[in-house]
Amino acid sequence: MVVVVVMVLEVMVVVVLVLVMFVAILVMLVVVLLVMVLVMVVLMVVMLMVVEMVVGMVVVMMGVFVVVIVVMVVW
């Protein structure tokens, strides 16, 4: 009887440990996914800012180019 109780307790301890490990792995996976999502969002924002800067530079260059052409034609 005592042996059976000890075996049941051991099995219960093992099951609890496995469940804790499983939960810990799940939590780590969720944290990793959240970090990846955050990194993706930051990269998207940075990319958008860079694209906006490049587009702005191109627009400014085009404007200067058009102004130069107009001045040349007028001259």
Explain what you see.
The chain crosses the membrane at residues 12-43, 50-74. Keywords: Membrane, Transmembrane, Transmembrane helix. By secondary structure, the chain is mostly helical. The chain has a domain at 51-75. The chain is 97% helix and 0% strand. The chain has one helix and no strands. The chain has one helix spanning 2-74. The longest helix is centred in the middle third of the chain and has 73 residues, at 2-74. The mean pLDDT is 92.
For the structure shown, list the relevant keywords:
single chain; 75 residues; mainly alpha; rod-shaped; transmembrane helix; transmembrane; membrane
| Share of β-strand residues | under 5%
Sheet of most strands? none
Principal-axis shape: rod-shaped
Helix content: over 70%
Q: Count the strands?
A: 0
Low-confidence stretches: none
Distance between the termini: 110 Å
**Arithmetic mean of pLDDT:** 92
Count of separate DSSP helical elements: 1
Order of helices and strands: H
Structural class call reads mainly alpha
Please state the CA-atom Rg, rounded to the nearest Å. Answer: 32 Å
Keywords: Membrane, Transmembrane, Transmembrane helix
Transmembrane segments: 12-43, 50-74
